[in-house]
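Q: I'm writing up a methods section and want to include an example of the input and output format. Could you take the sequence below and give the corresponding predicted structure tokens, formatted cleanly so I can copy it straight into the document?
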Amino acid sequence: MSFRAAALTVALAAAMLAAVPPAQAAEPGVVPDLNWGTSTADQDRTAAAIRDVGARWVRLHVQWKYWEPNGPLADVVDNGSRRSTDRAVQLARGAGAKVIVMVYNAPAWAAARTSSEGSTPRDPAEYAAFVRRLAAHYRGQVEAYEVWNEPDLQRFWAGGPNPTAYTALLRAAYPAIKAGDPSAKVVFGGLSWDYAGFLGRAYAAGAKGFFDVMAVHPYQSAAPNATWRTWYGQARQTMLQNGEDKPVWFTEWGYNTSTKVRNSTGDWQTGVSETTQAAYLTAGLTMLEQDPWVEVVLWYNFRNNYWQNDADEVEARFGLLRSDFSRKPAYDAFKAYASAAAPVPPSPTVPPPPPSLGIPEVTITAPRIASTFSRSLRVIASATDDVRVTRLEAWIDGKLVKTTTSSSLDFWWGGAKKASPGPHTVLVVAYDAAGLAGRASVVVTK
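A: Here is the clean output for your methods example:
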């Protein structure tokens, strides 16, 4: 072992045993692969590890194109991506973590331009309609919604970064998310690097007042240092210069353990040893204690990319866990820091169900999607499940209007006559004996 490696090992051990973060320390979280096509068995193993490591937050990716591939509200009842994300949200919350959902990648019918990583929407209103439905679907279960991923990179914003176009999307999404769930925070799409230029131009285009949290992804190859702190601090300075004092969240940050070298291999980040990864994690979290306006820090990602099977590639080896769930030293470093920051939350009253249980299927027979009404509105819905359905709830525009302990409901909404002209959302939620919830919704117009 080299002198440098030995020093890093000693520093890590000392941090794990002695460092106790102050009260203003950022809440640590992870970006897991809970809904990245993983099996239910791996979802359960991941959830158990999230609880064990003490992560306070998780960030889940929702690709719009997989939820509504055939048009607005199409396939909302029987959709594999929705099912996987429903289960991921429940497992994350059962593990004691709060949830951020990042929404990106427009379906073909709603796309303006397409890149290798996804598509940007042609009309901000169509994206806004989807995130409103999404926020209503997860009302009370998801703490924050992040509007897109790294819009300052062509990799994720087809056609190249466009602060004006992104701001139009943000301005449409903000009120839509609040309409779906007034308690949810709206997060500016995590910027990869341009914390002054892109954000400044977004403010010039009207971004002020249309997000609650600023997100950045301050990856670097070097150890956490003063230069790094100055860099991510540009996001806060830009906000302050534009008359806003919003918290900053790192919705991605991490170091990979490949053997790649940025300057010689052309990769965007140099890999480090597993021991160094752990030391940098502890050093970075400790440095952030100087900046209490950084409230949440999520390590990307929780497990090495399972589909790459620990390949020696930058993108494959960011995990605190290897793809077989064995622990890297960084897992223990994260756990030590998280446990010093605050005790692990108690287990929920209803634990996550085993993978053999399914989510209730909800069918809304009336009203029909995109239908209209005038003085009366009839709601007919039913639910099926592989275990007993214990309760159905009907919500209209975010208000609970009907509850029944049977598996079906049929009623006339008393508020129809006084409802205002325009769109109204009917949401039906079914709960089963295992505590799982299934949902379906339609939007109708008066």
